[in-house]
Write a structure and sequence with these properties.
By secondary structure, this protein is an alpha+beta fold. The protein is built from 14 helices and 16 strands. Helices cover 32% and strands 23% of the residues. Helix 7 crosses helix 9. The chain binds 4-amino-1,4-dioxobutan-2-aminium adenosine-5'-monophosphate and magnesium ion (MG). 4-amino-1,4-dioxobutan-2-aminium adenosine-5'-monophosphate binds next to strand 11, strand 15, strand 16 and helix 14.
Length: 477
């Protein structure tokens, strides 16, 4: 039998059910110890919820054993313990229940002062900066903030599977190691077993035929191309897994390893794709509001005022829509507000995305019809032969959270575009086959999972919403 979780214990009701007023054992990590005359209050947390359970000891109690007094004496923040007692209504404000505790056993101490070979436990009862916590990423889930992020992240991940399952999508596992650059942007990490040191000493050219896979391979930047092949057979599919980008962008919204959710839908055009993206995001906001209320209230109080109201209003309002051309016109009117002057043909910078979402629309906006030059090779060309059926969902504070498009299903047009972009068609014959046999209009998008978690929690830096962030120059742990 697994041990009861504090979240379940705290949801018991001692008033209506005297049965719940029984001897219980709780386990967890000590957050604080306070003393008031003969009373000792131990706040215990096991990460199952934000709240601690307060365990109250009476040192003057007749039955209080010597071992308990000793344990209470040596107990420090961060120690793991087992505590037994009776669940009672709490006389203190701010909590309904507490444990009238009679027994405590220290499972693993966490010394607050350094000892030979063991530095002091770094998470003492005080506020630590998020920057400091990143340096101890292996211990930071023991803080309120990182634990709350982990719970919201977990709930959202499950919500993603729920949403797609309810809508007839099959979950497809696309490969991590691949020979094709799905975005054609040259941001792949190489995967090789060649002896680079020996090669560089030999001065010989690299022969990828001798590499592990007999060709040049890398870590995937997106599961989209493989998802397209399965959508062309199962109609509705999605992938959800880690993706990798060797971009050297050191920002609060970029990682070198991040998780992406990518649905791909056959017999769907751009408009269907936009509707799906909007419905999907609203579903996830609703789930978070319903199931993560306590954690969201914490983020609201400590990180972003108005967070909950904002999510509530998003979950029920309509996203705005604008074409890229109209968006650029709008931005040009306020060109003085930007470091990077907007012009037709430019990629939207984050200051532009911020302006559109925060100043022009005060909410999410879906931008469509980007110039083909700034988008990936697979996007369907519009009749103007200049723009593609792309859609980016932009949100306040973060900018792009989703990028997607209708896919080019015309073989000739796709081959032309790949040629223009200097891609080696040989590597993509399997992808082109989808246009040769039983081709259908199809569309999909990618949601950056960490950006979603950032948006829902209000965390400013993407490094604080993934357990072990990987970015340029950063791969500790
Ligand atoms: O816009 P992107 O590059 O689109 C694709 O990869 C398509 N294959 C998706 C598709 O149509 N199936 O990336 C999609 C999303 C972005 O909108 C962003 O939220 C996130 O992935 N993203 C990143 N998140 C964190 N760090 C990075 N370096 C990211 N690059 C993209
Ligand atoms: Mg994009």
């Amino acid at each position: 039998m697994l041990f009861p979780l504090i979240k379940d214990i705290l949801s018991l009701s001692v008033d209506s059910d005297p049965q719940d007023s029984r001897e219980l054992k709780v386990r967890g990590w000590v957050r604080t110890k306070r003393e008031l005359k003969n009373l000792v209050f131990v706040e215990l947390n096991d990460g199952s919820c934000l709240r601690n359970i307060q365990c109250t000891f009476d040192r003057s109690g007749e039955n209080t054993a010597e071992s308990v007094l000793e344990a209470l004496e040596t107990l420090e923040t961060g120690a793991s313990v087992e505590i037994s007692g009776v669940l009672v209504p709490s006389p203190a404000a701010g909590q309904a229940l507490e444990l009238a505790a009679s027994f405590i056993r220290i499972i693993g101490p966490a010394p607050a002062a350094a000892r030979p070979g063991i530095p002091a436990y770094p998470l003492q009862k005080k506020r630590h900066s998020l920057e400091f916590l990143r340096e101890i990423s292996h211990l930071r889930p023991r803080t309120n903030t990182l634990a709350a992020v982990a719970r919201v992240r977990s709930r959202l991940a499950f919500g993603i599977h729920q949403f797609f399952r309810e809508n007839g999508y099959q979950y497809i596992h696309t490969p991590i190691i691949t020979a094709s650059d799905a975005e054609g942007a040259g941001a792949m990490f190489q995967v090789t077993t060649l002896d680079l040191e020996a090669l560089s000493k030999s001065g010989l050219p690299v022969d990828y035929g001798k590499d592990f896979f007999g060709r040049k391979t890398g870590l995937t930047v997106s599961g989209q191309l493989e998802a397209e092949t399965y959508a062309s057979a199962l109609s509705r599919v999605y992938t959800f897994g880690p993706t990798f980008r060797a971009e050297n962008s050191n920002t609060a919204r970029h990682l070198a390893e991040f998780w992406m959710v990518e649905p791909e839908t056959a017999f769907a055009e751009l408009e269907d794709n936009m509707d799906l993206a909007e419905e999907f995001l609203k579903f996830l906001f609703t789930i978070a509001l319903k199931d993560c209320g306590e954690d969201l209230a914490f983020f609201e109080a400590h990180y972003e005022k108005g967070l909950i109201k904002n999510l509530e209003s998003l979950a029920s309002s309509q996203f705005s829509h604008i074409s890229y051309s109209a968006a650029v016109e709008e931005l040009e009117k306020h060109a003085g507000a930007f470091q990077f002057k907007p012009f037709w043909g430019c990629d939207l910078q984050s200051e532009h995305e911020k302006y559109l979402t925060e100043e022009v629309f005060s909410g999410p906006v879906i931008v469509t019809g980007y110039p083909k030059e700034i988008k990936a090779f697979y996007m369907k060309l519009n009749d103007d032969a200049k723009t593609v059926r792309a859609m980016d969902v932009l949100v306040p504070r973060l900018g792009e959270i989703i990028g997607g498009s209708q896919r080019e299903e015309n073989l000739e047009k796709l081959e032309t575009r790949m040629g223009e972009m200097g891609m080696d068609g040989e590597n993509y014959q399997w992808y082109l086959d989808l246009r040769r046999y039983g081709a259908v209009p199809h569309s999909g998008f990618g949601l950056g999972f960490e950006r979603l978690v950032q948006y829902v929690t209000g965390m400013a830096n993407i490094r604080d919403v993934i357990p072990y962030p990987r970015a340029a120059g950063q791969a500790e742990f």
